[in-house]
Amino acid sequence: MPDELFGAIAGRDRAIPHFLSMSAGSSQIRQKTRAVFGLRLRGGESSLMLMKGKRGLVMGVANDHSIAWGIAKTLAAHGAALAFTYQGDALGRRVKPLAQSVGADFVLPCDVEDVASVDSVFTAVGNKWGNLDFLVHAIAYSDKNELKGRYADTSRENFLRTMMISCFSFTEVARRAADLMPNGGAMITLTYNGGLRAMPNYNAMGVAKAALEASVRYLAVDFGGSGIRVNAISAGPIRTLAGAGINDARFMFAFQQRHSPLHRGVTLEELGGAGLYLLSDLSTGVTGEIHFVDSGYNIIAMPNPEALRTEAAAASAQAPGSGED
Ligand code: NAD
């Protein structure tokens, strides 16, 4: 399960060569971002209140590790009124108390494979609120058995299901949300660098993310005339249920965190900050963008050779039989 799977990431500082571990520790980063985004203020509210008077729908919270939850908490701290969806009763039991903790009692079931459930969410939002100011889409799925090995071996069934849930669902909910945004609004979805570059084991999910990113650009054009902005956050690796489904996630994630320009991973608070920027009036001139929040990993072509040499030396020192002669 995720905790074991990502244990090495949580303890990554121990494995990082000294010269790579000089950046701030994750608790310092969390403290800094909490201060910047106002999350340390009384009652969890920010003094800035950038989302005051805005109402939005958050789709994709599974638990308190979910990226959607990191974004929701920041939006709520800035005064947003939130509605949440959840997939299935088991997740509903986790999502409802989380929603309550940010003052939200508008929590609805939604499985994006079932169009009737998508329709009933937007009917309910329309009936209760009349209109929407923003949408957060943080939904993805691909068969775990195909999040390993070769992309070439992807099955037709999993390809279609992955594309439907991880890509088309955004188009489907964006159209319905736009109908509830007569005064303009903003939408975001979540993507990953595996949509832009070949990433081991990401396979059909990478192809779905590429299509999702293209959808962001097409939707931005379709809705731009109505004052509705559409953007994506391309997140660096985060320890979540979805992330844990990728084979060798522990190695891939730790590698990216060690070799990113900032020499670390990203926090839910940092993703919340990016969500706040893209959904608030701070970014009124921005649409159709893929905004990376990944400690800069996407900009490098290869890690620093010195770092690789240090890792290789550490690995050979730990290899069985080393030090015997
Ligand atoms: P998560 O497991 O917390 O969230 C994934 C969500 O997708 C869950 O709430 C799940 O219920 C929902 N979902 C899956 N199938 C669904 C369906 N048929 N109907 C409705 N909901 C469904 O994991 P997360 O990492 O927070 O994922 C959120 C988004 O962030 C995903 O798009 C993911 O690809 C993206 N992302 C994650 C990472 C990472 O490292 N975790 C990095 C970049 C992008």
Task: List the ions, cofactors and other small molecules found in this model.
Answer: nicotinamide-adenine-dinucleotide
Largest sheet: 7 strands, parallel
Structural Rg: 20 Å
Percent of sequence in beta strands = 5-15%
Query: How large is the count of helical segments?
Result: 13
Helix content: 40-55%
The CA-CA distance between the termini, in Å, is 39 Å
The coarse overall form would be globular
Kindly state the number of beta strands. 7
Low-confidence stretches: 1-24
Strand line-up across the major sheet: 3-2-1-4-5-6-7
Structural class: alpha/beta
Order of helices and strands: HHHHEHEHEHEHEHEHHHEH
Q: How would you state the average pLDDT, rounded? A: 88
Topology of helices and strands:
Blueprint: H1 2-5, H2 7-10, H3 12-15, H4 26-36, E1 55-59, H5 67-77, E2 81-86, H6 88-101, E3 106-109, H7 115-129, E4 134-137, H8 156-179, E5 185-191, H9 203-224, E6 228-235, H10 241-244, H11 249-259, H12 268-279, E7 290-293, H13 305-318
Parallel strand pairs: 1-2, 1-4, 2-3, 4-5, 5-6, 6-7
The structure holds nicotinamide-adenine-dinucleotide.
Please give a structural write-up:
This protein has helices at residues 2-5, 7-10, 12-15, 26-36, 67-77, 88-101, 115-129, 156-179, 203-224, 241-244, 249-259, 268-279, 305-318, and strands at 55-59, 81-86, 106-109, 134-137, 185-191, 228-235, 290-293. 45% of the residues are buried. It has 325 residues and is α/β, with parallel strands linked by helices. The chain has a seven-stranded parallel β-sheet, with helices on both faces. Helix 9 links the parallel strand 5 and strand 6 (228-235). It is globular, with a radius of gyration of 20 Å. Nicotinamide-adenine-dinucleotide binds next to helix 5, strand 5 and helix 10. Residues 60-62, 66-68, 87, 91, 110-113, 138-141, 165, 190-192, 235, 237-238, 240-243 line the site of nicotinamide-adenine-dinucleotide.
